Target: Diaminopimelate decarboxylase
Amino acid sequence: MTNQNLLAIAKEYGSPIYVYDAAKIESQYNRLTGAFKKVKELRINYAVKALSNMAILQLIHGFGAGLDTVSIQEVRLGLAAGVDPSKIMFTPNGVSLNELEEVAKMGVQINIDNLSILEQFGTKHPKTPVCIRINPHVMAGGNSNISVGHIDSKFGISIHQIPHLLRIVENTKMNINGIHMHTGSDILDIDVFLHAAEILFDTAKDFKDLEFLDFGSGFKVPYKPGDIETDIEELGDKLSTRFNEFAKAYGKPLTLVFEPGKFLVSEAGKFLVNVNVIKQTTSTVFAQVDSGFNHLIRPMLYGSQHEIHNISNPLGRERFYSVVGYICETDTFATNRRIPEIAEDDILAFSNAGAYCYSMASNYNSRYRPAEVLFMDGEAHLIRERETFEDLLKHQIPLKQIENA
Model:
């Protein structure tokens, strides 16, 4: 997408607005599958939580991917998007037995990450195929909030509890067809990932009827020019070799599964905002925009950096700006960032807005959630309408109605 494409979208649909580049999503999918081309059976399950718009699910499913879901609502979205239930993995955390049972009835692959629910589910449904999520006790990820494989994490069954796990499986005679792990997001050290993979391989030896091994994802993407990222080609080469060796020793064909979210959609997304006010204080020049952490919370929640481009004046003289939102609390997107000179009503484009931006948006301050646009084959397609005031009122019950009841 060019700046002119983005400016035309902002003019037609207004701001703030999320825009996704279909070609970039496809190139990322092809890059990942190409990195693991030595593996005969490879399955990519897109992590729906990253960006759950139905059109995006259909686009990625069209490339050949299944879905990784973490709630029954995401499962239903996948089914509504036309994805076969056999291509959907359900990897929740801390959900009730009832929710697991309801999803299992849909024909979706269940992934269980705690001993209590495992025993209850296995006792009641011993024939239903179940994947087990282990916690390898490997610290990985770029932020403590997104590192989920360490010893204090709430995710997964500890590798130190494997004997207990095996007793449950033996006592219930339940059907374990997969083993899963996910260490965290923004993984840079391939050796750490490969170390965790060895723990998964070692665990898998105790299960004789496996069909797949799921290695999660968490691959880091670049957030600025020259930024470091996961070397997916090196990882693909090393892990493919090791996986093929393990599958041969295991004695039956196994499928290698990944569940990328950010890797597929992050770089494809742009978030466009309008500059409402340029405000100069005694020490700072603020560019105040028509959005806030209600639409893009990652800089405030994770300390993440999103490149900000002035697409209205890309060749202007660079100056230092603090880019802030219109929320009634501190919502700073960038501090003293060098950006081509900004004027009121310019359009700024935030990069890496495809993952965990709309999906974490809210109506805080009673603001509307923005529209979403998919740029595909040279054209912009509206895939979600901007919310209206009627949407804010839709599920509210006025006091007068209660008094007259």
